[in-house]
Amino acid sequence: MRSPSDYIIFPLDVASRDEAKELVGLLAGHVGMFKIGLELFIRSGPDLIAWIRSAYGTAVFLDLKLHDIPATVERAMRGVSDLGVALATVHCGESPQMLKAAVAGAGPTGVLGVTVLTSVAIEDLRQSGLVADDDQGLDKLVLHRAQMARDAGCAGVVCSAQEAGMIKARWGAALLAVTPGIRPAWEGVGHQDQKRVVTPAEAIRQGSDYLVIGRPIRDAARPVDAARRAADEIGAALAGEPFAEDG
What we know:
TIM Barrel; 8 strands; alpha/beta; 11 helices; 15% strand; 8-stranded parallel β-barrel
């Protein structure tokens, strides 16, 4: 049975290996998975993944958001799988073939299709020409891309928790919902570079399987305490109980 902390993915959004190792040493055992994104992977490479797995046995989510021609994506995903990561991302983009190629190359690594970034709002989609108006355009696009991911054999999708409910209503446990843009109730739902944000409790109520929680933990005076408090909020939601924001 998963503990509340198992739902937390902590992103190592720092510039150096030393900073990342310090955070891993601090938070291992208090979060379920560490996420390595493009900046840190470029600077530190596969060795950091190997160190996390060997030193702490914690699962790693490699968030590179691959997007290229299918043959290139398949070869790249084979390399990703060789690193032993649990999850890896590929943009749903415009090509079902790219998603299928990612799955074909992934081996035991779970492929997550990125639907619409949580930094993107409906007006951004209109400006890019992806939707014609704001009448459920974003929801329709997310569902369409989630369907693409499901048809391609992806393990799940990355989406806002605001869309997780409709994804779980349609596919249930057959499609993981990994949700960034999480701001704990005790921190307040600040936007910064995220536009579609929710609290951990609301994300759980919407059916999110994993919650990516970064700044509220990393920037806290006591990151471990912040991780525990986020887990408490998740645990209360899982139990169907109110969360004491002042506790």
